[in-house]
């Protein structure tokens, strides 16, 4: 099964097997936005290629704004590198370690491990 469009809150990822298909998807989204008064921001949009070289032609929005082609995109806090589609979790892990160290610092030297785990679980649930 192929899912060509992934949605989460106000983030959209469009997947296509061709640049022509991607341009068609952008046009459909833009038309839907005009119909339902939804504004898409070309300045916050990025295009990348996974599994092959990027073509020379640019993807354009309906307004004629060029959507830049990049080698790394961020989606839901995860960074994906082109063309391998490898995921870089180091920024998320850094935030996790920083939060955990702050929890241990607040608890102090004679910390209770169960309390630290409890606070950490609450932190993770709160951020999700």
Describe this protein's structure.
There is one protein chain. The chain has two domains: 5-88, no CATH class; 91-127. It has helices at residues 19-36, 90-107, 113-127, and strands at residues 5-8, 11-14, 59-60, 66-67, 72-75, 78-81, 86-88. The strands form three sheets. A three-stranded antiparallel beta sheet has the order 5-6-7. Strands 1-2 form a two-stranded antiparallel sheet. A two-stranded antiparallel ribbon has the order 3-4. The radius of gyration is 20 Å and the shape is elongated. Helix 2 (90-107) packs across helix 3 (113-127). The chain has 128 residues and is an alpha+beta fold.
Describe what is shown at a glance.
40% of the residues lie in helices and 18% in strands.
């Amino acid at each position: 099964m192929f899912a060509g469009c992934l949605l989460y809150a106000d983030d959209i990822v469009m997947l296509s097997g061709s640049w022509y298909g991607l341009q068609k998807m952008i046009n459909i989204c833009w038309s839907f936005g005009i119909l339902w008064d939804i504004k898409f921001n070309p300045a916050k949009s990025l295009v990348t290629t996974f599994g092959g070289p990027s073509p020379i032609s640019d993807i354009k929005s309906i307004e004629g704004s060029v959507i830049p082609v990049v080698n790394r995109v961020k989606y839901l806090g995860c960074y994906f590198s082109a063309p391998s589609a490898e995921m870089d979790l180091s920024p998320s892990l850094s935030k996790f370690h920083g939060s955990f160290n702050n929890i241990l610092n607040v608890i102090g030297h004679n910390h209770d491990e169960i309390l630290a785990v409890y606070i950490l679980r609450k932190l993770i649930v709160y951020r999700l």
